Amino acid sequence: MKNDLRSDCPIAASLDVIGDRWTLIVLRDVLLTQKVAFSEIGVPEGIATNILMNRLERLTEAGIIECYAHPTDGRRRIYLPTQRGIELIPILVDLVVWGTDHTAAQGVRKIAKAIKQDREGMIKNIEARAAASRAANLPKA
User: What residue stretches are annotated with the HTH hxlR-type domain (predicted)?
Assistant: First the structure.
């Protein structure tokens, strides 16, 4: 990824890479729910296809996800997290808890409660699922 960071501050630099609404929605879908197909990502929020494509390209350039040909349909693409992407899972997990506690969003209240009870266990579980999804969907050599 080209270096177009606006600041040397780590928080500002992180926001330059992952800090807009649609990027976080894409990360939620790819990392937390293991969605891999273009048609699955950002569906509930209605992300426009051109914006989705832009965010997927940016995340690929940043080394957070990788793009591969679909295993059964070479015209389609799948998007898989890299290790760099998987390392974002704790941040997203904390956003789930914060959002449940401090906004009107209550869609995953049970998950937020489970995270509060065993944050590290939940993170390890989600990381393992993301890694397993990646392994299962990687093209065979």
Answer: 9-107
Token pair of 35 as six digits: 């969605």
Sign, CA dihedral 25-30-33-38, equals positive
C-alpha distances out from residue 39 to 26, 79, 125, Å = 12, 11, 25
What is the pLDDT at residue 105? 78
Q: How far apart are CA 46 and CA 78, in angstroms?
A: 19
Task: Give the domains, in start order, of the chain with CATH numbers.
Answer: 10-137 (1.10.10.10)
Predicted pLDDT of residue 2: 53
SS3 66: strand
**Closest listed residue to residue 129, CA positions, set 121, 140, 139:** 121
Q: Are residues 137 and 68 in contact, defined by beta-carbon separation less than 8 angstroms?
A: yes
Per-residue pLDDT, 141: 67
Spans in the chain with pLDDT lower than 70: 1-3, 141
Model's pTM, two decimal places? 0.88
> Hey, CA dihedral for 116, 120, 11, 54, is it positive or negative?
negative
